[in-house]
Each structure stands twice: as C-alpha cells, then as structure tokens.
C-alpha cells in the first residue's frame, strides 16, 4: 500500500514538473524578470531555468542588450544552464559592462560554464579589475575551471583585499599543496586576523618544518590565532615550543593560555599550573 502511495506521489510530482516546464512562454518569463515583485521575478527565473538550453538564446539576447534586473538574472541563469553559446557574450560582459555587479555575475557564470575560453579573460580580471567582488569571483571562477597555473593565485596573494588573498590561498591549497609552505610563512604577518588564523591551520598540516612559524604565532596580536597555534604545536608534539608555551600560559588566562596548557600536557605529559 505504501509503495502504491509513493508511486502516486512521484507521479504527481512529475506531472507538476512537466506543467512548470510547459507553463508560460520564454518571452513571458523574461518579461516577468522586470517585475517589481521579487516573488514574481524568482518564479520567472525558476521557470526559465527549467526550460534549460531552450531558453539560452533568449537569455543571451538579454545579456547582449538588456539592463537592470533582467540582465543580472539572465547572467546567473546562463551560468547554471551551462550552454557554451553563452561564453563569448559573458566574456564581453565581464570586460565591458559598466556596472560591477554585472561583471561580477559574468565572472561567476564563466567559472560554472566550464569552458577554457574564459581562462584568459578571468586572469586579466584578477590582475586589472578595480572592484573587489569581481576580482574575487574571477579567482573563484578560475579555481572552478581547475586552472592549475598557480601564478595567478600567487598574484591574488598580493591583493590589497583580504578576501581575494584568502581565495588565492585556498586555490593554492588545491593546486599546489607541495609548494604551499613559503606562501604560508609570508602570510603569517598578514594584516587580516582571519587570514592569519587560516594560515596557522594550514601550517599545522605541514608538520615539523612549520614549528618555528607556529611558535612565532604564539605572539600574534589576535587571541584566536595564538590559541590555534598552541593547539597545533601540541598536536605536533613540538618539544622546542615548550618555553614559548609556558610563557603564553603564564601571561594569559584566556582560551589561548588554556590551549598552551593543553599543548604542554600533550608534549610533556605534565599538567602545568599557571602561577599568579
């Protein structure tokens, strides 16, 4: 009885999906993308997505000549639909659109399309684009395309914005894990505490050669970084860090000091007690 009911439910869902596909024309849905009602715009976008590659030519026409919400949503949909016919128009949008949200959406969509023709324009965007969001999406797009030439990600490490530097580092983790340590050592002094925290986490995976950098991180200006460095040294059993950990434990009653105590216990087998 249950199986019959399940089959009935699945049949109804299939019928509903068919209805959504057939319901309304592509032109009607495109017109609804200009609606002031966000619910109408969302419904129209979903129906166009269900149309798949059949909707691609009309969406490309919007990218070529549309404006406002229409063009932005059409760009996002083309990335999700994955039609290679969209590559050249989206490259043009990345390079020429005056509005940065449109360039950002184009960079993101080009990554999703999986076409190597986008690699050159995305690299150029990483190096020359003025807007942070576009550079960030360009780095992400290259990583999605599995572009393995690490020079562009190394360039991203020098970006003034921490989000771009972080994305460049994550790409290097993916494509050049064996050559990561020099970059991590360079970034231990990064001005962004969130990035320094990530660097310490990555250093802890490298092993004994990262111990000196982790010991230095015990003096970081951010408690969370000091805490993570202490825990990493404990996991690595770094006996050479003993004095630095004792110093951190003595000067801090915060989580970083407790992490130093835990690390000392792991390294020496002794439960150190902070002195007043």
How would you sum up this structure, described in words?
This protein is mainly alpha-helical and 276 residues long. The chain has 17 helices and no strands. It has helices spanning 2-22, 26-32, 38-51, 56-65, 68-81, 87-96, 100-113, 119-128, 132-144, 151-156, 162-175, 181-187, 193-206, 211-217, 223-236, 242-251, 255-268. Helix 9 packs parallel to helix 11 (162-175). The longest helix is centred in the N-terminal third of the chain and has 21 residues, at 2-22. It starts with a helix and ends in an 8-residue tail after the last helix.
CATH superfamily of the domain at 181-276: Leucine-rich Repeat Variant
Oligomer: single chain
- What would you say the CATH architecture of the domain at 181-276 is? Alpha Horseshoe
Order of helices and strands: HHHHHHHHHHHHHHHHH
End-to-end separation = 72 Å
Overall CATH class of the domain at 181-276? Mainly Alpha
Largest sheet composition: none
> Helical proportion?
over 70%
CA radius of gyration is 26 Å
Strand content: under 5%
Structural class of the secondary elements? mainly alpha
Could you provide a short overview of the structure?
The protein is mainly α and 276 residues long. Helices cover 72% and strands 0% of the residues.
Keywords:
276 residues; Leucine-rich Repeat Variant; 17 helices
Topology:
Elements: H1 2-22, H2 26-32, H3 38-51, H4 56-65, H5 68-81, H6 87-96, H7 100-113, H8 119-128, H9 132-144, H10 151-156, H11 162-175, H12 181-187, H13 193-206, H14 211-217, H15 223-236, H16 242-251, H17 255-268
């Amino acid at each position: 009885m249950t199986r019959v009911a399940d089959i009935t439910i699945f049949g109804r869902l299939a019928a509903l999906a068919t209805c959504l596909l057939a319901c309304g024309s592509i032109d009607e849905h495109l017109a609804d993308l200009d609606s002031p009602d966000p619910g109408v715009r969302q419904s129209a976008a979903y129906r166009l997505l269900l149309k798949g590659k059949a909707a691609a030519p009309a969406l490309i026409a919007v990218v070529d000549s549309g404006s406002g919400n229409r063009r932005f949503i059409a760009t996002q949909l083309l990335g999700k639909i994955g039609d290679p016919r969209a590559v050249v128009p989206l490259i043009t949008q990345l390079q020429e659109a005056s509005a940065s949200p449109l360039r950002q959406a184009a960079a993101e969509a080009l990554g999703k399309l999986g076409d190597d023709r986008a690699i050159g324009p995305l690299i150029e965007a990483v190096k020359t684009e003025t807007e942070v969001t576009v550079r960030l999406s360009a780095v992400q797009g290259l990583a999605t395309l599995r572009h393995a030439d690490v020079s562009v990600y190394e360039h991203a490490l020098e970006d003034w914005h921490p989000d771009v530097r972080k994305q460049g580092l994550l790409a290097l983790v993916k494509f050049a894990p064996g050559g990561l340590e020099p970059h991590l050592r360079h970034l231990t002094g990064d001005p962004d505490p969130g990035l320094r925290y990530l660097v310490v986490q990555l250093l802890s995976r490298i092993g004994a050669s990262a111990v000196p950098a982790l010991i230095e991180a015990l003096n970081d200006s951010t408690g969370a970084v000091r805490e993570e460095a202490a825990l990493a040294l404990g996991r690595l059993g770094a006996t050479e860090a003993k004095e630095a950990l004792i110093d951190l434990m003595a000067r801090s009653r915060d989580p970083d000091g407790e992490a130093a105590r835990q690390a000392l216990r792991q390294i020496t087998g002794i439960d150190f007690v902070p002195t007043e």
